[in-house]
User: Fold this.
Amino acid sequence: MAERINFEGELNEEQLAAATAGNGPMLILAAAGTGKTRTLVYRVAYLVSQGVAADRILLLTFTNRAAKEMLERADKLVDSATGIPWSGTFHHIANRLLRRHASLIGFRPGFTILDQDDSRKLMSDAVKALGLQSKEFPKREVLLHVLSQARNREKPLEHAVEDHFANVDVDPAPVVAVLKAYEARKHELGAMDFDDLLLNCLVLLHEHPEIRQRYATQFEHVLVDEYQDTNTIQSQLVDALASTHRNLFVVGDDFQSIYAWRGADTRNILEFRRRYPDAKIFKLETNYRSVPEVLNLANITVGCSDHPVEFRKTLRATRAPYRCPTIARLRDGDHQARYVADLLTHFKREGYKASDIVILYRAHYHAMELQMALTRSRIPHHITSGMRFFEQAHVKDVLALLRVLSDPHDALAFERLLCLLPGVGEISVQKLWKKMGGRFDASDPVALKALGAALRPAARARWAAIEPIIETYYRSAMVANGGEAVQLFLKAFYETYAAETFDNPESRVDDIRELSLHFGRFESVDQCLSDIALLSNLDAETDAAGGGQADSVRLSTVHQAKGLEWPVVIILWMTDGMFPSSRSIEDSADGDAEERRLFYVASTRAKDELVLCVPEVRRMRDGGVMYCKASRYIDELPNEIARTKRIGYMG
Assistant:
């Protein structure tokens, strides 16, 4: 079959060398846009064409779709429909092994795999069994997230709990007790959740050398995609299954390792040579995606890092020269939003479709002003997360407080606010609302005290933290600026509520802090709330007309954009503290390096045009401004790499 495939004609020299290499451990460092998937496909085809039996190849990917697409392409190349029977995600392969040998580690071969609903139900049962069910106790989704973080990072349970609730008033001891009860109950039922598949598979291979040897002997070649995204458990599984033949072929890009927050460990790829001293390293550096000017910028970003020299890759373009990336110097977030809206019109005149354009940002709240500007301009857009800023639950929760303060007759806001309290449900709030005559005047001290007295003890204790905010709101005339009330509410109540309710409380808190700044743009809270309501209705009209997903501009975080590409990429808030994120740098020893990798991923999504937006100031809650320093990634760029434009400000 080897004669049927023109490897030399269909692969470049770098890809050919990797795809047709001999045996032994190999690390393929595939830079952005260099044909990583193509190389893997041809590697599979090459092995089959050389007579390697299909069932002796193990292909590990991060999605079943990726494995399916690779194998379909490989089948076409070798003119075969046999496929590779051992291929798919790490969890898929682990499940297959456990189905055969679960009895060796104390499980039935027909063990149950808990889906998300099952896991949530079991966690709820564990909470109830310990008598801890209440709104003051972390929600089951949060508990499952903390447990998953502990397992995927191989971190002691106590440490994971302490880390998650480090900044709020939550006792870690009962949380740890619940998580241990959940684990025990799961084992009693002979069930496994998603994380257990990997953990128990590793236990199987470690505790039963004969099983490890059986599969390590069977799998003559082990291939791994996106190796930079593996966690320590996945890395250990790979090493165990490749331990006999040591024909391990891993493909990845250390400089696209951006998922440390969910357990990915960049050391797996950086220390590959330490585990496999005889490993061959191949580099894919010929880029087919981007114009050379974009690649020049990306190369500077890599060159300014303290990355190990042996892992450095220099992207080389195959496309003709075009235009340098643009650095747009802007006044503030509002100016940035108007500039980007105008820029979309400009690119449309140049022949780009709206779907050719993506607007990237480091965090969701960075796009708040832009979402508002696009909505007002009726520019079709959709958000990768699916939720517009003012549609998000935590934003609506906080706005409910201000709606209650603004309108005594707002029953829906009253219900939403009180339902945040422990032991309070919709029916009890509706009864209370009716008893109060369908009206709650928060400015009336008598009504305020009466409401607190009407609540059950658990709810009353939490309400006691909110009540002084309401009193201060009227006493200090905050009606001119609700941002201060939002900040007080966040500090006194909602920060703890977020930690108990959401698996990503830090980003929710950041959103709310940005929301507090938004009120400074208006003369009153009423005016701001009205504007938000109008914008929400405009969004709904746009979506109803098909503008949500049709030929529309995409808004996305950088994390959600990895693996994708667009002709035009616009990146917001390229200022220190925003991108790179000050929180990320402060919270992690690798934070500065990962932020740089994020910028590299963001910039290499661009095929033709790359625009970097650099606002000079940010609004403060008191109406003042804070001057911003351009991102360090901007300051590193030589003048010839990008063209700087100071955009005229129209106030």
